[in-house]
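Internal QA ticket QA-208
Title: Verify multi-chain structure generation after dependency bump
Assignee: T.L.

Test input:
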Amino acid sequence: MEKELFQKLVEISLVNKKLFLPGVSIDCVIFGFDKSSLKILLLRPININKWGLPGHYLRKDEDLRDGANRVLQERTGAGNIFLNQFKTFGKLNRTEYFFKDYPDDLWHKQRFVSVGYYALIDYHSVNPVPDVLSDACEWKDIKELPELMMDHQTILEEALLAVQRDLNYKPIGLNLLPEKFTMSEFLKLYEIILDKKLNRGNFYRKMTRYGILEKLNETRKGGAHKAPDLYRFNIEKYNAALENGLQESW
Amino acid sequence: MEKELFQKLVEISLVNKKLFLPGVSIDCVIFGFDKSSLKILLLRPININKWGLPGHYLRKDEDLRDGANRVLQERTGAGNIFLNQFKTFGKLNRTEYFFKDYPDDLWHKQRFVSVGYYALIDYHSVNPVPDVLSDACEWKDIKELPELMMDHQTILEEALLAVQRDLNYKPIGLNLLPEKFTMSEFLKLYEIILDKKLNRGNFYRKMTRYGILEKLNETRKGGAHKAPDLYRFNIEKYNAALENGLQESW
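Actual output:
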């Protein structure tokens, strides 16, 4: 198995040197929301007992943003995903130790500066696909994350800060919630992103004040309790409110 | 002159290949404020009839952020500058045409993904120094900018958007205004950054409400009109207000 992986890496290395720009990589923090938990999509590299973010290199013939979209498309099968560059990671030793037992001219062993993108995706539309160097690609609850490789924990934390900061300026809710959702789901999403409890009444009043919610004549059936009302976003008003930024400190 | 420059570039190219990571560059948008105008520091490359942002490459032995600090230090002589990474630029053809008449293996001709930093600096503390490929390094008023090379106009505009977005979250005023300033100067700075007129009374009331200003028992002497009052920031209250974000849409 070790030998097989070694051979595979050497082969990939030769191809990568032809196709990709040296020095630059892309890492994607892909968020999905399922009822009451925020999840991110992770890969388990072969022979490594840690998980990592989906990522790749930048093709010599593509724009940086197209590279990020390619990663998303290949790992999730989904197109047209909300995608936002948030930070570039260039610490000296962020990758070095990772391939330390491999030859120095291995493509993967060079120093990479990695451009971080976060993506918001409809959790239920995704069919996760491992890449050629991984044996699993799975959604993980951000409250129960496995150990991450290299500086991926840092990248993930910075992505969460970016999503927090963008709550007032970008359609985070629209891109993570299903088309019809309950007020509890909406509140829960904000509580997870902000990592704190919010007052339900205040939250409802704030959101109502912006007029971004439309109450539907439907309820969510199937629970043990009284069926909760369903809402959807008024996209026009949501976008208009985001243009000035929601005036909330949360 | 052409031949001299060519020779110089070839020499630098050989050194750069040893010292720097391929594929990655750094561009710095350095802002300074002088009484009533916002300025950025620009370089005029030898033999090119356009101006460019101060920038460089990433040393193989330094962190990305240290590379940006190195650029700032070398061009301005100032240390300890407020520095913020805001976006990375990776369009396919952002640099290509620039060295089109030079040999393909010239360091400068390769494709670079450029990491953008903006810096806020005390205008009066700076002694601008051109780099080895430039014959001028000067402050330019952002209202009267010369033509910029490559995608530097785009990088500058994105930096301004980042500063706008950060007004409520980072000590922009503190880092651009002199220690003692008039209300007119403070207002003017915001008007230039936001590119719109603000109501003086509203602006004053908003800022007073946060308690971030201290009125001094001094006035600015020397003008034709009544000497205006001087203010300084209460840094503790400024930082406390920024922690939650100022709740202003401007």
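Spot checks passed. The two ends of chain B are 50 Å apart (CA to CA).
Status: verified.
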